Amino acid sequence: MTVGTVAFDDITTPFGRAEKVVGGACTYISWAGSYFTNDINLVSIVGDDFPKEELDALKSRGVNLEGLEIVDGGKSFFWAGKYHDNMNKRDTLVTDLNVLADFDPILPESYKNSQYVMLGNLTPEIQIKVMDQMKSKPNLVVLDTMNFWMDVAMDSLKEAIKRVDVITINDEEARQLSGEYSLVNAAKKIHAMGPKYLVVKKGEHGALLFGDGQVFAAPALPLAEVVDPTGAGDTFAGGFISYIAKTGDTSFENMKNGVVYGSVMASFCVEEFSINKLKNLKQEDIASRVELFKKMTSFNI
Amino acid sequence: MTVGTVAFDDITTPFGRAEKVVGGACTYISWAGSYFTNDINLVSIVGDDFPKEELDALKSRGVNLEGLEIVDGGKSFFWAGKYHDNMNKRDTLVTDLNVLADFDPILPESYKNSQYVMLGNLTPEIQIKVMDQMKSKPNLVVLDTMNFWMDVAMDSLKEAIKRVDVITINDEEARQLSGEYSLVNAAKKIHAMGPKYLVVKKGEHGALLFGDGQVFAAPALPLAEVVDPTGAGDTFAGGFISYIAKTGDTSFENMKNGVVYGSVMASFCVEEFSINKLKNLKQEDIASRVELFKKMTSFNI
Questions:
Q1: Hey, are the CB atoms on B184 and A85 less than 8 Å from each other?
Q2: What stretches in chain B show pLDDT beneath 50?
Q3: What CATH number did the domain enclosing A63 receive?
Q4: How many domains does chain B have?
Q5: Of B182, B219, B294, which has the smallest distance from its Cβ to A224's Cβ?
Q6: Nearest chain A CA: its distance from B293 CA (Å)
Q7: Three-state SS sequence of chain B
Q8: Is the pLDDT of residue A68 over 90?
Q9: CA separation (Å) from B217 to A83, A226, A281, B143, B201?
Q10: Chain A residues with CB within 8 Å of chain B CB
Q11: Domain enclosing residue A223, as ranges
Q12: Which residues of A touch B205 (CB under 8 A)?
């Protein structure tokens, strides 16, 4: 099951602009996840301006839309952003919450025993509301969030974090959340807040997985062309949890593999605007990039 | 053989200050290298203010000081710097060239057939002068440099680069040198300038090795405490080339191992001010951190 935004984005990068394209954390998570499982329960909200063919495309990938609220006459969440020259920083130009302002998710009965729950970046209150509705304890709950919620809703974010198994944030956010500069020390503090596992997403510098007193470091695949970083973190999360769901193994060893698959999916995401590249992958594309990843990280001492 | 500065540093970090401590690229390179070979030919210059016991310590590690010019009545190169809170940026407060201003290295005869040559960060003119004095073509020449030389001496830097096998720089420098933002494309441009191999040093984010149409990505070991990043790049370079010298194998496969050993040595360097930690390592310390590195990067897909 995945909760998060389904939205429109307006993205400007040094390489061009994509106006009113499909975006949203839940969209990226679902597309990435659909290469690992055809049993994704989506929870989100859109207006009736959201293109039906985009929803049909998700359905055809095995994404269950029973939990998608479509608001008659409503407008979908809209975000506009502009990336700096180095693509590592971006400015938010517009955030129109629209239907998201009143989002109060009611889980369909069939969702309430989902075993793998991805809480995409959203207000912590909504992430909590979703957890409250679960009937049985999931095998794994992963929460993604961002600095914005640390700034405006730290208390409820901490409530949400307390109840999850894995949290995925970037390095600056790990520092902000923990008050520790060293990521090793940040991980310790964050473990003490609840999550047994911490994934630190570092964009072009890869990702770190902390847990069980261990650490796994995955570099990012160096890419010749990065067109649009939007959604890379969500795509990572979607690949990560869906690989774990597919294998049914929540051990640290298998989470490492999840990080590799997440990184591979994210490497595709950034090569085109919006979800364009994620829509057209073959299993062979993924497998061959995993091979690249293995080659790139292996050494023989 | 290693060429570079032997100097005094004054270092301020958020964790404290070290006044007039031993520093210099050549010092770090030699100390790191001394754990792999006891046959390092040092080329540098100091004033007679440089402590004799520090030179004796290097000698006792098998570092040949025949090529170290000691200027009577001269003062050693002095650098003072202050790190920002996040340790990733620093400001240079003082640069007193002192004896370095007139450095015109004359290689001892016994150095002129050195098989592994590390050109530490210095004016490209000096790096070229050193190469000019070699009697036989070395197995491997590695050049380290920095953005400063790109700003003030790009032409002679390009002359120097043309003649070396490996260049080690950080990511911003790779971008500046090549004019390409993508490191994959930067590597292609830099290969075309001469060096078959490019090492991109990314500090806490690890290192990338490009060459032979391949790429190797090594993360940095996440550390609980980083006290002083000064010299980490030089220490990396010293470990890298000395491991290759020790094994006598300049293949891409073995260079990968060199990157791992370089990363491991750098991880020690930053844990204390100056060369303090590098002075007191045991082979077991290095071996156990290499094991950590293997564990941290291995996965099983």
A1: no
A2: none
A3: 3.40.1190.20
A4: 1
A5: B182
A6: 9
A7: CEECCCEEEEEEECCEEEEEEEECHHHHHHHHHCCCCCCEEEEEEEECCCCHHHHHHHHHCCEEEEEEEEECCCCCEEEEEEECCCCCCEEEEEEECHHHHHCCCCCCHHHCCCCEEEECCCCHHHHHHHHHCCCCCCCEEEEECCHHHHHHCHHHHHHHHHCCCEEEEEHHHHHHHHCCCCHHHHHHHHHHCCCCEEEEECHHHCEEEEECCEEEEECCCCCCCCCCCCCHHHHHHHHHHHHHHHHCCCCHHHHHHHHHHHHHHHHHHCCCCCCCCHHHCCHHHHHHHHHHHHHHHCCCC
A8: yes
A9: 26, 18, 25, 20, 10
A10: 85-87, 181-185, 202, 205-206, 208, 214-220, 222-226, 253, 256-257, 259-260, 290, 294-297, 299-301
A11: 2-297
A12: 202, 205-206
Global pTM reads 0.96
Here the ipTM equals 0.94
Chain B residues within 8 A of A182 when measuring between CB atoms? 222-226
pLDDT tens per residue across span A226-262: 999 999 999 999 999 999 999 999 999 999 999 999 9
